[in-house]
Amino acid sequence: MAIVVETKATRSAGLTPLPLEQPERPSFADLARIYLDRLYGFCVRLTNHPSDAEDLVQETLLRAMRAYDGLREPTRAKGWLFAIATNAWRDLSRARGREIRTVPIDGPDGNVDEFSLFQTIAIEDPFPYSDELHLDFLRLFRDEDVAAVFGSITPAFRLPLILTVIHGFSCKEAAAMLEVPLGTLLSRLHRGRKQLERGLWDYAVANGLVTTTDEERP
Amino acid sequence: MIDCREAVRRMWSYLDHELAAKPVSEFEAHLETCQRCCGELEFNRHLREIVADDERAPAIPPDLRSRIEILLAGGDDPTGQPT
To answer: Which of A95, A121, A156 is the last residue of a domain?
Structure first.
């Protein structure tokens, strides 16, 4: 559409002037529709429960709708929505008497921090005739297996993984969203990865996907 | 030259593109001489991919989408709370 600037000529021609072009701010509804699927995916992984995720998506959108005028850069809406969802989940968990934190999150975490899935697979050698031992181990896991293991990671350590690995935020952005120092974020990320590695191995053993050296092989 | 222990420590940050230029070049120089770390990097790359796979994200339920559309259209708060 051509922009008509008001002048004597346009007035005499009866043309109605439009305001000069300005960067268009999307409506909240349009913005929410763009990010809705990703927000739901984030909430499912955060809560680890579909009905909790539904409540959280709705609560997040209500809070975001009220705060939208304060969002200066709509291009950063995804991070803004996820930060609101994270805070809302903390509040909902507290209201239900459940804290997100389930272990002392910056203290030692048993021997999980030292666990190496790569080394464990090499030592246990669950597929003696395989040329791709490590990759064959990962091929054992169906989507629901991965989801079950991922959901078992301590929430405070799972959250940095969700933000960085799944949704592509940088560690710096994730630290800002969670309002923690970068060092704390990196430490939690490390422990989340270690719990993931340990969880995959324990899940494989518990579900009979691999045979360990402790068990008899035929 | 960094050793295997340091290379393993940097591995996930490398995959996350979170390492600065110098640590990256040290890490990559180590990989050129260490087949074991190459194998572990490849393994971690696949491990990262199965977690990051967005296809694993469940689809939003249709009835939730409908409730949200009502909310976005300025209708009632779907949670029943006054807005």
So the answer is: A95
Q: Which of residues 2-21 of B touch A (CB under 8 A)?
A: 8, 12, 16, 18
Q: What is the mean pLDDT of residues B20-41?
A: 96
Q: Does residue A217 lie within any of the structural domains?
A: no
Q: Are residues A133 and A194 in the same domain?
A: yes
> Is residue A42 in some structural domain?
yes
Q: What whole-number percentage of chain B has pLDDT above 70?
A: 86
pLDDT, chain A, mean:
84
B64 near A CB under 8 A: yes
Cβ contact B60–A150 (<8 Å): no
- Residue A210 vs residues A72, A108, A205, B58: alpha-carbon distances, Å: 52, 29, 6, 28
Specify the range with the lowest mean pLDDT, choosing from A103-107, B24-28, B44-48. Answer: A103-107
Q: How far is B31 from chain A (nearest CA, A)?
A: 16
Question: Are A83 and A47 found together in one domain?
Answer: yes
Q: How far is B68 from chain A (nearest CA, A)?
A: 7
Taking CA atoms, what residue in A is nearest to B11?
A190
Residue of chain A whose Cα is closest to the Cα of B37: A118
pTM above 0.90, yes or no: no
- Tens-digit pLDDT profile for residues A165-194: 999 999 999 999 999 999 999 999 999 999
Same domain, A87 and A135: no
DSSP assignment of B39-69, as one string? HHHHHHHHHHHHHH-GGGSPPPPHHHHHHHH
Range of the domain at A163: 112-206
d(CA B77, CA B83) in angstroms, rounded, equals 6
At residue A179, the 3 state secondary structure works out as coil
**Rounded-to-integer distance, Cα A130 and Cα A169, Å:** 36
More confident of the two residues A79 and A128: A79
